[in-house]
Amino acid sequence: MDEEYDVVVLGTGLKECILSGLLSVDGLKVLHMDRNDYYGGESTSLNLIQLWKKFRGSDKPPAHLGSSRDYNVDMIPKFIMANGALVRVLIHTDVTKYLYFKAVDGSFVYNKGKVHKVPATDMEALKSPLMGIFEKRRARKFFIYVQDYNENDPKTHEGMDLTRVTTRELIAKYGLDDNTVDFIGHALALHRDDRYLNEPALETVKKMKLYAESLARFQGGSPYIYPLYGLGELPQAFARLSAVYGGTYMLNKPECKVEFDEEGKVCGVTSEGETAKCKKVVCDPSYLPNKVRKVGKVARAICIMSHPIPNTNDSHSVQVILPQKQLGRRSDMYLFCCSYSHNVAPKGKFIAFVSTEAETDQPEIELKPGLDLLGPVDEIFFDVYDRYEPVNEPSLDNCFISTSYDATTHFESTVIDVLNMYSMITGKVLDLNVDLSAASAAEE
Amino acid sequence: MATIGHNNLNAKLVLLGDMGAGKSSLVLRFVKGQFLEFQESTIGAAFFSQTLAVNDATVKFEIWDTAGQERYHSLAPMYYRGAAAAIIVYDITSADSFTRAKKWVQELQKQGNPNMVMALAGNKADLEEKRKVTAEEARAYAEENGLFFMETSAKTAANVNDVFHEIAKRLPRAQPNQNPAGMVLVDRPAEGGARAASCCS
Lengths: 444, 201
Ligand SMILES: Cc1cc2nc3c(=O)[nH]c(=O)nc-3n(C[C@H](O)[C@H](O)[C@H](O)COP(=O)(O)OP(=O)(O)OC[C@H]3O[C@@H](n4cnc5c(N)ncnc54)[C@H](O)[C@@H]3O)c2cc1C
Ligand SMILES: Nc1nc2c(ncn2[C@@H]2O[C@H](COP(=O)(O)OP(=O)(O)OP(=O)(O)O)[C@@H](O)[C@H]2O)c(=O)[nH]1
Ligand SMILES: [Mg+2]
Fold this sequence. Notes:
The complex is a heterodimer of chains A (444) and B (201).
Chain A: E1 4-10, H1 14-25, E2 30-33, E3 45-46, H2 48-56, E4 73-74, E5 80-81, H3 85-93, E6 101-103, E7 106-111, E8 114-117, H4 122-127, H5 133-148, H6 167-174, H7 178-188, H8 201-217, E9 224-227, H9 233-244, E10 248-250, E11 257-260, E12 266-271, E13 274-283, E14 292-305, E15 318-322, H10 324-327, E16 333-339, E17 350-357, H11 363-366, H12 368-371, E18 379-390, H13 394-397, E19 399-401, H14 412-426, E20 439-443
Parallel strand pairs in A: 1-2, 1-13, 2-10, 7-15, 13-19
Antiparallel strand pairs in A: 3-4, 5-9, 6-9, 7-8, 11-12, 12-13, 14-17, 14-18, 15-16, 16-17
Helix pairs in contact in A: 1-9, 1-14
Chain B: E1 3-5, E2 8-17, H1 23-32, E3 47-54, E4 57-64, E5 85-91, H2 95-111, E6 117-123, H3 135-144, E7 148-151, H4 160-170, E8 183-187
Parallel strand pairs in B: 2-4, 2-5, 5-6, 6-7
Antiparallel strand pairs in B: 1-2, 3-4
The complex binds flavin-adenine dinucleotide, guanosine-5'-triphosphate and magnesium ion.
Guanosine-5'-triphosphate binds next to helix 1 of chain B.
């Protein structure tokens, strides 16, 4: 490794692996290292033995849970919007050929103590028990407005400039009640708090359209897809892309100390006494702890179960959003469940996550409203984690640090961070103009 | 996993072996019928597909070459995930490469799919005068470990197609598909259908 590279990438989380792949494809000489002996960093998926080591300090999970290698438990659970930015990146880079996906069965929302299917179209709105009969009619009108809305066609704007009209004003025009607004904002537009109400409505309308278009894509019960064998496959697939284009891979490299010259610019990375010279470093927050600050923390519970989440139509993969207001909280809570149908657990087993931006130091208590929806669990692990963002100036030190994965349930913000980093690193804009309306799926 | 549709099988096949053993050369010989005296260490294309007809079926191999990630012991588990077959390649003129091949066999026995068809290929059989590993030794090892064994030469083409044919014959036919397989995301063909083609059955 005593060689000179254009870029050394540290950490094999999803963001780092996408960047490594893009940079190698661009012809840059990339060395990609990780202190762990596995791919994925924070965004890896663990087998049962790894899970036990991490949370129970033992490598002997109980035999009744089945074979360790049948488990792929995500450490950052998220679903992929079928029409979203990550799918664009996968198609643009042709990394899709290394992966198999399946639609996610269901998307639900918690409202007044009960779990309901998220209605996403005007037709579904009419059927949903979430609303009374008059509210349904109002909601249907609003859904039709959103479906027909086209940024480039003023005729569809009905006289409103959505870059100025706030979401609150737009919704007021349709006379929707707070309950309806709650599921539209949190379960359809996937906002995490209520700030969107006072922001221009365009963003919310676009997010609702993304949801509806993603839902239409694969005729599943949700707008999401998810890879077979878990999210840990994603960083590995992008790492393979990088390797195929000449990137060098070294796992299990202790230390990975970033070296700086007298001007404070990065000049190399040292591990095990050898230094790889480089012009730039790309890494996750854990490799440059002095250049990041804490911006929040996440509380979560990981559960192994032998049944689907109750009241979700027997969905073998599902998301349930519990909007903040329904719980009297400042941030939403999420349930996420996957199972053997996505090859993340042995036959008959389900993996459920309950997570939220932590507001206390007691995850057991804080997560209770979500846990109460799961029914009995075979095993449960509690955990609290910090989130970081970079505070350095990359133009001065040539260090490009990713932000910790945020609290969204899908990958839109992940990809935005990656694309911004790519532009800062290369000075170029990645053209993701794949014809998404034409992207489709072939059944294996 | 080998998946079936009518009489067609799709089978992921992975290559493993020491640097320079001839993995890429074997694939190039099989897929394109070519041999390069100075085959570069593998970067770039590392994914091929080739269809073979055997008595009762056609087998479409999806062939994965390592892309160099194994060099520093950093091969990703997704590489052998779902593989129906593996060819472990060593160079008959290098005892080290044979030792390395045995390590790969162990690794596959630990990580791979238990029904995987495994072949041990002693490559560069044309270099008889420089031989360091005897065929007897390799065959005995293969038999003990449930692999089938052939000596090959990517240079002369000896036994190359035969290895792939033998694998195709040995692939379990009616493997019950416990889980309906997933979908591959593809660009839908623009007019004419040139682009997509990522599938199958
Ligand atoms: C159904 C679903 C629900 C989600 N719910 C939440 C949520 O309620 N609140 C939230 O903040 N994010 C949630 N997420 C998003 C996501 O899991 C994490 O928030 C985010 O990806 C990582 O958070 P982070 O910025 O703390 O990452 P990091 O700073 O990298 O987090 C550090 C560690 O925290 C862990 N972690 C962080 N957040 C979560 C989480 N929510 N669940 C499990 N592990 C986590 C990871 O193991 C990671 O290693 C959810 C995703 C899905 C699919
Ligand atoms: N004489 C002879 N040379 C061969 C044979 N097969 C491969 N070679 C040569 O051996 C060298 C290495 O072959 P590759 O196919 O690149 O080996 P590889 O296993 O793919 O190597 P890496 O990609 O570096 O891991 C090349 O120079 C080939 O020309 C063979 O059957 N006979
Ligand atoms: Mg090669």
